[in-house]
Amino acid sequence: DNISLVLTASANSTQSDINLKLNELDLIDGNDWGISQKNITDTWEINPIILNFNTTSPDLSFNLDTTIYGNHKAQTKVGQTMLEGVTYEILENGSIYWYFSHNFIKPLPYSEYEFIINKPSNWDFIYALDQALVSYSFEYGNIGDSILKINKSNELLQGWWSFKATSPNYLNISNTKMLKQGEWTHTSFDAGESTRIKTQVNYSSEIPSNLGSTEVNLTIFDPEGNQWYSEVNSPLSNGSVFFSELYFDALNTTGGQYDYTLFWSNGTSLGGLNSSFLVIHQSSFSLIKPNDA
């Protein structure tokens, strides 16, 4: 009888007589003999994904285990719409909140999904809610972090997810002054006087960069709520903003409380405040007939 003996043994991919390569790339031998691995980061735009193996061995068999990770990039949405962007809210107390949404769709049989959201470092996330308004825990997402991550260990529900964050207010009433007779301390003016308003884009001594390309909007409303004046001005490099001189003439003003708003944004940071000042009209009368007094 003809008897043949076949001896099968494990070999490392980098052995000189094996030289197993994936897409012309050397594999990395593991701690266990005969096991190698390779991570490939690439952009694939066709289906199926083709992997090419080459070896110098005339007869080689091996088992291949593959795990493919994909990533889908998208822009944040306003509400449950396809409009890209975020919305914000500035409260009377100066608190600032940001809102945006993402429509999460999970194709079958994909698994182990996770969210990684690139964020401004001065945003502090408050919540991440799924379609059912269930709150999910997240990693990072605090001031100083550049991302928010919802870990793949969570079972993520398909549908519209909503996110809320807060950020510092870069305009503060303590840095906002009105000029009267050489002093930046007043909020009450007589008809015939004038003033200038100044403020500073600043939060806890942090002044944003590239302020010259941004603007601060000033809008003043008269006692009836009508817009009385508006101006737009760019901050100086130290954050200071000086607006034009305003004249309170008896003919162009009404006595009472004037409200004004200041608003600044560079796209990812905000500043906003409301305040007021008084314009006082005085009248004098001369009695023509004192006996009628």
Walk me through this protein's architecture:
By secondary structure, this protein is an all-beta fold. It folds into 3 domains: 8-68, no CATH class; 87-167, Immunoglobulin-like, CATH 2.60.40; 173-280, Macroglobulin (MG2) domain (Immunoglobulin-like). The chain has no helices and 22 strands. It has strands at residues 21-22, 25-26, 28-29, 36-37, 53-54, 87-90, 96-104, 115-118, 124-129, 139-140, 147-150, 159-167, 177-178, 188-190, 194-195, 197-200, 215-221, 227-233, 240-242, 246-247, 256-265, 270-280. The chain has a 5-stranded mixed sheet with strand order 14-22-21-17-18, with no helix packed on it. A 4-stranded antiparallel sheet has the order 6-7-12-9, with no helix packed on it. The radius of gyration is 34 Å and the shape is rod-shaped. The model has no long low-confidence stretch (mean pLDDT 89).
